[in-house]
Amino acid sequence: MAHRSSRRLGKERMASRVHLLRRRPLVWILLAGLLALLISGCGTGPQSALAPAGPVGMREAGLYNLIFWMAVVVFVLVEGLLLFTALRFRRRTSDGIPSQIHGNTRLEIVWTIIPVLILIVIAVPTITTIASASTIPQGPDVLKVTVIGHQWWWEFRYPDLGIVTADEMHIPVGTKVALTVESADVIHSFWVPRLAGKIQAIPRRQNEMWLQGDEIGEFYGQCYQLCGTSHANMRFRVFVQSKADFDAWVKDQQAVPAPPTDPEAAKGAQIFQSKACVGCHTIAGTNAKGTIGPNLTHFGSRTTIAGAMLEKTDANLAMWLHDPPGVKPGSIMPNLGLTDDEIKALVAYLDSLK
Amino acid sequence: MAEASLGGHAAAVETTTGLDHRKMVMWAFLGSECLFFGSLISTYLVYRNRSLTGPFPQDTFDIPYTSVSSFVLLMSSLTMVLALAAIQRGNVRGMRTWLVATGLLGSVFLGGQVYEFTTFIAHGLSLSRNLFGTTFFVLTGFHGAHVTVGVVILFSLFLNSLRGKLTRENSLVVELAGLYWHFVDVVWVVIFTVVYLLPY
Amino acid sequence: MATAEHAATTHQPDRRRYEGIWSWIFTVDHKKIGVMYGVTAVCFFLIGGIEALLIRSQLMFPNGKVVSPDQFNELFTMHGTTMIFLALMPLSVAFFNIVVPLQIGARDVAFPRLNAFSYWVYLFGGLLLNASYLFGGAPNAGWFGYANLTEVPYNHSSYGIDFWILGLQILGVSSMAGAFNFLVTIINARAPGMTFMRMPLFTWMTLVTSFLLILAFPVITVALVELMFDRLFATNFFNPAAGAEPILWQHLFWLFGHPEVYILILPAMGIISDVLPTFARKPLFGYPVVAYSGVAIAFMSWGVWAHHMFSAGLGPVANAVFSVTTMLIAVPTGIKIFNWIGTLWGGSINFKTPLLFALGFIAMFTIGGLSGVMLASPPADWLENDTYFVVAHIHYVLFGGTIFGLFAGIYYWFPKVTGRLLDERLGQIHFWLMLIGMNVTFAGMHVLGMEGMPRRIATYPPGMGWDTWNFIATIGAFTIAVGMLVFIYNFFASVRHGQVAGPDPWDGRTLEWSIPSPPPPYNFARIPIVRARDPFWVQKYGDAGHGHGRVVPMPVAGGAHDAEEARADEHGEGIHMPDPSYYPIVAALGLAVMLAGVILTNLILGNPPGTQPAWPPSWVAFVGLLVFLYGIYGWALEPVSGHSS
């Protein structure tokens, strides 16, 4: 963010002459440090909107950059003019009463028209970008995914592929993906900053957007609309995969997992079926048909748990099963009072669901 | 608002526009009320025909009945005008008569609304039953509350005049009550059209 | 109390029928009410500030554990609600009260008792809202309270949302009552010759703000009533299961919310439009254009609400239309900024604290305006919306803008109210701490936003690239807090020992500087006749500015034939001012108890939130109604002793 650079430069040039400012070098050192940090800060994090990895994100970030640099120019001019005026016309002992000027129509017309022109330059690409982002691609090449926000996890349904999963969305690289974004309870907001702009998940609405990942890799996203206690813990990941990897994933997801053979896992399956788990979770090929919580059919194939809050390790999973609300405040999954033995068996079972 | 209410005693103050402060604030208040009812009516329109379960308006409304009570309310605007005209001529007795008539017509309208609500509830419509019940009762209920306040003001004016406190000189108080009363009437015309007359 | 009986006979202008604290509680004097508004608003500002410091402490490091996620939600909800409704708006109203009648040459507002009523309703509403902390939990769904997170199925662990709904409705009554009062005062109680185009800009912006208030608040009132009915009477306004659209709340809220933004900024713009000419010793550059662009901003604020909803999926046409209307608002805003700079140009600028804050306003508000243009473009907004970028934007507008403007006003008018100047040196320290503190706090939030940090998250994991900026922001927040401590010390020290100001410490241009500091209860011994814009300046220096600062007697209204004016000598004898009254505070208390009665009853009975109030046990509301009716009835029948003018 170069916001501050020009302001400081302008001031520095002035500083040698200006007694008022010479007294406060600390101010300028602080501002300079801040400026250096601001510039180095952008476009580096895993959720940066300024490191787009797909065409939709690129267009939006491009428009952002256009407006940003125009704003920088205006900023430099206005703040520079303000500073110059304030210092140039500061009161001197010799001052009489300045001439009482009430205005200048020509000048005022000029500074009305210039902003209008600048805004036109911004408005035109704005409207074309709105149009391209809002034109949802159609056709056989387009992957359709329904995204459903829940307190506090994300459900991903692939209607054409018959896949239901949670917290992790897989998409093939270089492919247009049309998303329908819905909510099961309150308003959420779906955003993968590096792929495309965000859209809210609102009850009774099917909001549409599209995105495309042009880089193979793992992309972070999370809920951006306040949705209750664990709003901060409603994260998800998008895996952009090669076509072959994606197809393999689809095949795995479409298969019904085989009953567990490992005795510990089999014991876990039994516990799962006999406890409250089945009321909220679905595991294809079993009696578990609940829809309140995430579908666990291929839980073993995921890399995260609890709304992508934690990496999926046995220790984390055990910790979660031990006391879900303790891990994730407000969690709708209650503490089921499971014993350590039961948890161990359940972890084995859930891991087996590849 | 209360500064402008019953029997205000402030001597006429010289003002910039020549308009009494109380009259100006009444107009501002009514402007504000427009936005209040506008928002409620917008809500009703947004949710029109959006109920998932019955009873629906077409099962519920008795248009001829409500038309009669609407007519009663409209007539009360006429009597209100006559009340103001009377006091501006200094005719206190005439004003009393027309004030009471206006208040009674308003009461008849309110009675009609109470009866209507009772029938609707008997038909299974309630505040929480469906979107129609929610929006209908809240919109017309708030209007009814405004009419009720108007009736209270009218009868208070009448009582005040019995104590000899309403004269030609402070006929402004009657005028203010009249402004409010006409506004409430006009709002009803809009509500009646939007809620009852637009075909479902 | 014998108010009524004595009213007709006692006309001592300086009478002290209520001593000490009672003289404040029963006052109807606009200056005293203004002081009460100001002090109360600063207290709430400090509470909101403490909430902000807790928020920043929690976010200083990743995985913060200072407060729980639920407490965090309560803190930012109360921070936003408190700052907007209990600090910034009432502080503006404090200036409306103190300054507007003085600027237009009036002895009081049009409805003095309604004015007192506004204040007391504000105080009780603010206390009620904050009482929620003591009764199981504060509101927790954000200051914007998006339905359906506020509905009973998703929000039943405390009465917080109910307190929020009722608190805001009570505060709405106060704001609207105040707005009606100032609307009428400004249109209808100006001194002779004070035409619209001679009104000081602060009075102009008060007028515009009053229009916005009386038109915007009914909309939020309806939204709150609908939500309240959903929670208390199981209606379906925002219940998706019954077919309702929760997005309706967003429309209603922002239809109010965007004019509200201008309700917050326009008074501050008015203040600096008065401060800059005074300290530059030049008239406001392009006065008519500055006034009209304020009006234009107010008009346009009604056509931009959906820019808060660009990510709600309204469709490309709505997004494009609201984007263009939003960008257009930048035009009148830009005009104002250039005209302010034009005012300084060629002036003789006296760098006192009020001017520093005014310059800070222009500099910081420009940043907020530019980030506003960046938000006005929907595709860019899809990257910025609900991230810290927006947090940065609103704080540059509301902190760098409104708060700096209000502090300019505090330093500018403090001598008029108290008769003493705030200490200049401490004032400058205060200013620099605030300016540095706010930039350290909020500049980096632009980066945090673009790096994808969501708003309103109670915690964040390390490794997101957010750690540094959050740490720096917290340092900045505490810098601001230190600045506020300097101000508070300055305030108390200067009230007692500050340099005596005299009537006109700044070489002022407008009428308030033509009368003593502090002004007498009746303000103007003789109502002035206004013959020019900047009437006091013209009186001192003449039209062309070639005079020598010698005060010639003000022309007065009425002339020798006016019997009352003839009696009114320089000590104000014979000027009839409205009597103190206790009905406003009684009515305000009744109103607050009545509206709060429903939840209070449920609380007393120990019912869970969302319980439908049983009939008749909502007796607290009923008691409130009786008190309210008593207050209104007494008020209506209480004689008003003459406002002479």
Q: Can you give keywords for this protein?
A:
heterotrimer; A: 354 residues; alpha+beta; 5-stranded mixed beta sheet; 11 helices; 18% strand; elongated; disordered N terminus; B: 200 residues; mainly alpha; Four Helix Bundle (Hemerythrin (Met), subunit A); 72% helix
The proportion of residues in beta strands of chain C is: under 5%
- Overall pLDDT level of chain B: 90
Low-pLDDT runs of 5+ residues of chain B are: 1-12
Rg of chain B: 19 Å
Number of domains of chain B: 1
**Poorly predicted runs of 5 or more residues of chain C:** 1-16, 558-569
- Overall spatial form of chain C: globular
Oligomer: heterotrimer
**Structural class category of chain C:** mainly alpha
Instruction: Give the class-level CATH name of chain B.
Output: Mainly Alpha
Describe the structure.
The complex is a heterotrimer of chains A (354), B (200) and C (645). Chain A is of the alpha+beta class. Chain A has eleven helices and twelve strands. In chain A, strand 2 and strand 3 form a beta hairpin. Chain B is an all-alpha fold and 200 residues long. Chain B has one domain (21-197): Cytochrome c oxidase, subunit III, four-helix bundle (Four Helix Bundle (Hemerythrin (Met), subunit A)), CATH 1.20.120.80. Chain C has 645 residues and is mostly helical. Helix content of chain C is 63%, strand content 0%. Chain C is built from 19 helices and no strands. In chain C, helix 3 runs antiparallel to helix 4. The two termini of chain C are 27 Å apart.
What is the topology?
The complex is a heterotrimer of chains A (354), B (200) and C (645).
Chain A: H1 3-15, H2 19-22, H3 25-40, H4 55-88, H5 105-134, E1 143-150, E2 153-158, E3 163-166, E4 168-172, E5 177-183, E6 188-192, E7 196-201, E8 207-211, E9 217-223, E10 235-241, H6 243-254, H7 263-274, H8 277-280, E11 304-305, E12 310-311, H9 314-322, H10 324-327, H11 340-352
Helix pairs in contact in A: 1-3, 1-4, 4-5, 7-11, 9-11
Chain B: H1 21-46, H2 57-60, H3 63-88, H4 92-122, H5 131-162, H6 172-197
Helix pairs in contact in B: 1-5, 1-6, 3-4, 3-6, 4-5, 5-6
Chain C: H1 3-7, H2 20-25, H3 30-59, H4 69-103, H5 112-131, H6 160-188, H7 201-233, H8 247-280, H9 287-300, H10 316-344, H11 353-376, H12 378-384, H13 388-418, H14 424-450, H15 467-497, H16 535-541, H17 563-567, H18 583-605, H19 619-637
Helix pairs in contact in C: 3-4, 3-5, 3-15, 4-6, 4-8, 4-13, 5-6, 5-18, 6-7, 6-18, 7-8, 7-9, 8-11, 8-13, 9-10, 10-11, 11-13, 11-14, 13-14, 14-15, 18-19
